[in-house]
Amino acid sequence: MKTLKMLLLPVLAFSIGFSACGGKDDDPAPGRSAKKVQYKAIGSTGVKLHSALYGYDQTITTVSSIPGNTWTSPVLDVPASAMGGTCVVGAIGVDANSTLKVEMYINGELKKTGTSSGTTLSAGTSVVF
Fold first, then answer.
1. Residue 3 confidence class, pLDDT cut points 50, 70, 90
2. Is residue 63 packed enough to be buried (19+ CB in 10 Å), middle (13-18) or exposed (0-12)?
């Protein structure tokens, strides 16, 4: 568990730093539109999901004590002005063959996937809108 937290901390710092870098423009969303974003995590048999961090820009939510080996976030209504979205999920695998996959859906379409394998699993995905 301590190792898992050590793996999630740099990813969290990177995603917060990345989302905070956006500057102010006269038109905050030129050519962009609002979207619906959802994240899903799927662990192989025996994988125990531990926690998830997900959201967009500085709107971040954390979830802990996730039961089972799958998890789905609520659908997020992301405004046109949002710069990027991210999701990181931590889990414990049963052996070196354990896998964890994190998927990001935008407007119902799979846009990005991140994977991890082993006994200490940390998978994530992020996208710039």
1. low
2. middle
Q: Residue 107: is its pLDDT beyond 90?
A: yes
* Residue recorded with tokens 């901390």: 9
Which residues have a Cβ under 8 Å from the Cβ of 22 and sit 6 or more positions away? 57, 83
Q: Are 103 and 110 in contact (CB under 8 A)?
A: yes
* List of residues 6+ apart from 127 with CB closer than 8 A: 84, 85, 86, 104, 106, 111, 112
Q: Quick: pLDDT tens for 26-79.
A: 455 567 899 999 999 999 999 999 999 999 999 999 999 999 999 999 999 999
Query: How far is the C-alpha of 122 from the C-alpha of 129, rounded, in Å?
Result: 23
CB 71 within 8 A of CB 23: no
N-to-C CA span, the chain: 32
pLDDT exceeds 90 at position 24? no
Q: Which of 125, 50, 62 is nearest to 92 (CA)?
A: 50
